[in-house]
């Protein structure tokens, strides 16, 4: 008789990947993120029926119109983690300042950085959405962390991953020992191991980018896109273009089948669009842990100095050889 797939909880308990001393809190933190995912997925499934599509009329700290579902997803995180014993601070794309939770400190040492709903332009047309999370640990035992303590380099993450709300809901995470993917079985409300030890192919045949921005890019970036579309059987070109407008969905496809996602720097906006701490860093760590690469075009994402919670960074991520090619073009070496 075949074996029943491992649940998220049993997998974490059995694999013992989590560093000793952190096992309890970090596994319940991941379980709580799974719970948030179930709650958000439930709202998304009924979104067209219960008047939660469209915008709230507010503009967030990024200067973007807030969708009702952005706000709902953010509140879901706050409700689940407010009285948790795992998290003492929470920063989000949807909040200018992090929420500090001194009532959970000192027993809770972890700090959570989130993009509660990624790809929110997809909400109104029933397209994929995601949630991205990054976990760092407070170093200071002697005092409650402050806002500045949340801005940390990607190499300091202790757990990171995403939820993908696609044709099924998935939780994909790393704690630095590879990448594992779980699919939510809706009938029993459990995440089951569906993608153990994901490895990204060293080269792919897909590129994902908003090419409507072509005229805004520097010459090297334009040249790379022209190269991807040139015909050359030896290097598998032209590549196929695939872009959903949801970073999580686009990176997930590339994680499984190889290729490259780019949100590059622009002539008038060299810092790009995506946010370092809760978009680029967690996805960069996941992709690196699967054997891929993540770069700004000139340096490794995980080595970028974090200065502010909402800082932006160009993101070029995917199969190692594809990211190397892109770097060579962007740096003018090809
Ligand atoms: P968010 O919905 O969290 O603001 O993120 C949107 C991001 C990302 O998901 C996607 O890759 C990109 O922005 C899409 O931007 P464009 O509409 O400029 O292509
Ligand atoms: Mn996003
Ligand atoms: Mn978002």
Summed up, what is this model?
The protein has 334 residues and is an alpha+beta fold. It contains seven helices and 15 strands. Helices cover 28% and strands 23% of the residues.
Kindly provide the name of the CATH class of the largest domain.
Answer: Alpha Beta
Strand order of the largest sheet: 4-3-5-6-7-8-9-10
Instruction: Give the topology string: H per helix, E per strand.
Output: HHEEHEEEEEEEEEHEHEHEEH
Question: Which descriptor suits the 3D outline?
Answer: globular
- Largest sheet report: 8 strands, mixed
Query: What is the count of structural domains?
Result: 2
Mean pLDDT: 94
CATH fold type of the largest domain = Fructose-1,6-Bisphosphatase, Chain A, domain 1
User: What ligands are attached or bound here?
Assistant: 2,5-anhydro-1,6-di-O-phosphono-D-glucitol, manganese (II) ion
CATH superfamily of the largest domain: Fructose-1,6-Bisphosphatase, subunit A, domain 1
Radius of gyration: 19 Å
Number of DSSP-assigned strands: 15
SS content category:
alpha+beta
Give the termini separation: 56 Å
Helical residue percent? 25-40%
- Number of contiguous helices: 7
Bin the strand percentage.
15-25%
* Low-confidence blocks of residues: none
CATH architecture of the largest domain: 2-Layer Sandwich
């Amino acid at each position: 008789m075949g074996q029943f797939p491992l649940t998220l909880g049993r997998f974490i308990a059995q694999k013992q990947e989590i560093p000793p001393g952190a096992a309890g809190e970090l596994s319940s933190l991941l379980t709580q993120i799974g719970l948030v995912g179930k709650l958000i997925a439930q709202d998304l499934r009924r979104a067209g029926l219960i008047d939660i599509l469209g915008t709230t009329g507010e503009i967030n700290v990024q200067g973007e119109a807030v969708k009702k579902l952005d706000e709902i997803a953010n509140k879901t995180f706050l409700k689940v983690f407010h009285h948790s014993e795992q998290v003492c601070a929470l920063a989000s794309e949807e909040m200018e300042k992090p929420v500090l939770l001194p009532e959970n400190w000192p027993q809770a040492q972890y700090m959570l950085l989130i993009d509660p709903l990624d790809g929110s332009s997809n909400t109104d047309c029933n397209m994929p959405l995601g949630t991205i999370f990054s976990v760092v640990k407070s170093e200071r035992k002697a005092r409650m962390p402050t806002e500045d303590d949340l801005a940390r380099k990607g190499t300091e993450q202790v757990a990171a991953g995403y939820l993908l709300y696609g044709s099924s809901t998935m939780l994909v995470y790393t704690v630095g020992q590879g990448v594992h993917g779980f699919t939510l079985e809706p009938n029993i409300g459990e995440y089951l191991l569906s993608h153990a030890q994901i490895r990204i192919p060293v080269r792919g045949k897909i590129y994902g980018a908003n090419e409507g921005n072509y005229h805004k890019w520097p010459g090297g970036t334009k040249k790379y896109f022209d190269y991807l579309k040139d015909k050359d059987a030896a290097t598998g070109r032209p590549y196929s273009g695939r872009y959903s407008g949801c970073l999580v969905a686009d990176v997930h496809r590339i994680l499984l089948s190889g290729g490259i996602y780019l949100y590059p720097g622009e002539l008038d906006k060299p810092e790009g669009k995506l946010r370092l701490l809760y978009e680029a860093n967690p996805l960069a760590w996941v992709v690196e842990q699967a054997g891929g690469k993540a770069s700004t075009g000139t340096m490794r994402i995980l080595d970028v100095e974090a200065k502010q919670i909402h800082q932006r960074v160009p993101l070029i991520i995917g199969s190692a050889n594809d990211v190397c090619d892109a770097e060579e073009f962007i740096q003018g070496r090809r």
